[in-house]
Amino acid sequence: AAAPAARAAVAVGAIAGQSEGAPLAGLEAVVVGAGPSGLLLAHRLLQAGAQVEIFEGRSDPRSPEALLEGRAYALGLGIRGRTAIRTVDDELWSAIEPSGFGSEWFQLHPTPTLALDLRTPADGKGLEPSLLIYQTDLCGAMLSELEARFGSSGRLRTTFRARVEGVDPIRGTVTVATTAGDGGEETSRRTVGPVG
Fold it and tell me: Of the candidates 7, 4, 54, 6, which has an alpha carbon nearest to the alpha carbon of residue 29?
């Protein structure tokens, strides 16, 4: 199982020169975990002018091996999920939406023979349907959009198959070990941040 730090998004860094159009210009941030929360954080940091490095312990969610790593579970994005994504902008939601399926009907099955309606089409009149989407597809769409927007800026770097071994927020450093693409031997270990 992944360490708790690998499941959470963590930003570490120091603000250098700020500007009004890019309030986080000069911030070097590390995001640990390329799940939905980590990728949303990366979008927000890059949008505000920061430089972001993402470390993910598993492979790229868009790769064929991602399906074999246990990411193929379905999520329901309702109003809270849509709102969080739209804090970046509506274009991000528009990029994600085609990867899922709209649903206006939800049932809870507490036993094999009992089904309770949680939401029916009649309940949701006038509401945007929830989006049913696999976590792999959500992360793949968010990552593709990150790369499309910021890939050529020089402010985004993503490393897959990277195990975060330690975070020192006082020094502003993150120690990371990476493995070969086949998940084999460790290929490198490095510390990111102002060392010394």
Answer: 54
pLDDT in tens, 111-164: 888 888 777 777 767 778 888 899 999 999 999 999 999 999 999 999 998 988
The DSSP code sequence of 26-66 is T-EEEEE--SHHHHHHHHHHHHTT-EEEEEESS--TTSGGG
Cα–chain center distance at 146 = 10
- Residue 38: both structure tokens together: 């980590």
- How many helices (H) and strands (E) in the chain? 5, 11
Q: Tokens for 111?
A: 């036993």
What is the secondary structure of 74-105 as a DSSP string?
EEEE-HHHHHHHHTT-HHHHHHHGGGSEEE--
CB contact at 8 A, 95 and 141: yes
* Reported pTM: 0.77
